[in-house]
Specification:
Layout lengths: L3 H7 L1 H6 L1 H29 L2 H16 L12 H59 L1
InterPro entries: PMF1/Nnf1 (IPR007128)
Subcellular location: Chromosome, Centromere, Kinetochore; Nucleus
Protein name: PMF1 factor
Length: 137
């Protein structure tokens, strides 16, 4: 799209009068455009720390070469992607909660047994007190 012929056709009158000067202007324009683009790219690279990011991306790619399992890729359906990421976490959390629940139920069962044993002991002591009171009277 930036060919000399296209440039010359845009400035046809000038090209007809001085073709070498038109060629020189075109060359200068292209070189300045290229240097300007390179400067802009360098500026974007510097501002975004792209070099460091590209290096870390290269490192990730190198590490991934040794893997045998395929990498995760989004399906394009956000609901399924979120579900595929959340379900394993939620299942793991559920199993943890069930484990904690079991521990708490066991703890509660032991506490209930000790409360019942305490009540039985209180009932025995009340009977003993009642029996001694009657014996004393």
């Amino acid at each position: 799209s930036c060919s000399y012929q296209r440039f010359a056709s845009c400035y046809r009158c000038f090209y007809k009068l001085q073709p070498q000067l038109t060629r020189s202007i075109y060359d200068q324009f292209i070189s300045q455009l290229q240097s300007s683009i390179k400067e802009e790219i360098q500026e974007v690279k510097n501002e975004g720390n792209l070099e460091g990011l590209f290096n870390s991306l290269d490192k990730i790619v190198e590490e991934a070469k040794d893997r045998e399992e395929p990498a995760w890729r989004p399906s394009g359906i956000p609901e399924e992607d979120v579900r595929s990421a959340l379900v394993p976490y939620l299942l793991k959390h559920r199993s943890y909660l069930l484990k904690v629940l079991g521990e708490k139920e066991e703890e509660n069962r032991k506490v209930a047994e000790s409360v019942l044993a305490g009540r039985d002991r209180i009932a025995e002591l009340q009977q003993l007190i009642q029996a001694r009171r009657q014996a004393w009277q």
